[in-house]
Write a structure and sequence with these properties.
The chain is mainly alpha-helical and 271 residues long. Helices cover 64% and strands 10% of the residues. It is built from ten helices and eight strands.
Length: 271
């Protein structure tokens, strides 16, 4: 009994230490999502889909990321930012990958990319803002701080596209989702080899053959291998980064009165 009490006290102490800056709302969201992931993991174990089990375990580890960042870097994440990060992880891994929301809902991937770049811009803005506010010799204009936040967010978005391409190439995955198109413009089929664009319009279907001339696949239209998905992702990345950077500029210009940015601004831990 004594050992059990000691164990409970130690776990309680570790819990308070990990979530010392978290609000009640973010802790509630954390536990609700954690329970849902555990239930999902039990289901995947019963289905013997161990790849999805690993995704569930990864999600549980990523849920600890906000608390890890706060404790390691001595910063305070606003509850709004913390909750959105948790929901984003759950949506991307559990809903998107395991429950195939990417395939079921047409704009699900675009929504997550926009949200992700909004979050990345808030992190980039917070980093440069903390430097700007706490170092006397480091004073930047509101426009420059917002520009750095925008560039930081776009860089993260591009790095993610590199990651998707690498995973698809090395491990034969399909993270860069393909899209059916009905028109192709290319110089590849220019018989004169003079760099003239040849257009194929109103493509009805495409048939794939193997090296022995056996039909492998009949498909409607033509399959664009990832390019359209990449460009759509980068466009929504741009939109998400631009929105937050604009809010950030307004926040600094109006002497920190903008309420939207305050809910996403990382601060130094002062408790």
């Amino acid at each position: 009994m004594y050992c059990g009490d000691n164990l409970i006290k130690r776990l309680n102490k570790k819990f308070k230490s990990a979530f010392q800056t978290s609000t009640k709302s973010s802790i509630i969201v954390y536990f609700i999502l954690r329970i849902l992931v555990i239930l999902c993991m039990i289901r995947e174990i019963m289905l013997e889909d161990y790849q999805n089990v690993l995704l569930c375990i990864l999600s549980l580890v990523l849920f600890l990321l906000p608390a890890f960042i706060e404790k390691t870097f001595k910063v305070d994440l606003p509850s709004t930012l913390e909750i959105i990060i948790l929901i984003f992880i759950f949506s991307a891994e559990i809903l998107g990958e395991i429950n195939n929301f990417y395939g079921t809902f047409k704009n699900f991937d675009s929504i997550l990319h926009t949200l992700n770049e909004f979050l990345c811009a808030s992190v980039g803005f917070s980093l440069i803002y903390l430097l700007n506010e706490n170092i006397e010799s480091f004073k930047l204009s509101p426009l420059f701080v917002s520009l750095v936040a925008f560039c930081f967010s776009m860089t993260i978005g591009i790095a993610w596209e590199f990651f998707e391409y690498g995973m698809d190439t090395v491990f034969s995955l399909d993270m860069q989702k393909d899209t059916y198109v009905e028109r192709i413009n290319t110089v590849e089929f220019d018989s004169t080899k003079s760099n003239k664009v040849v257009s194929f319009k109103d493509i009805d279907h495409t048939i794939l053959y193997d090296s022995n001339n056996n039909e492998m696949l009949y498909m409607e239209g033509h399959l664009d291998i990832g390019l359209k998905d990449i460009m759509q992702d980068l466009i929504v990345n741009f939109i998400g980064a631009l929105i937050y950077s604009t809010f950030g500029y307004i926040y600094i210009s109006n002497k920190e009165k903008d309420k939207v940015v305050k809910k996403f601004l990382i601060k130094k831990f002062t408790h």
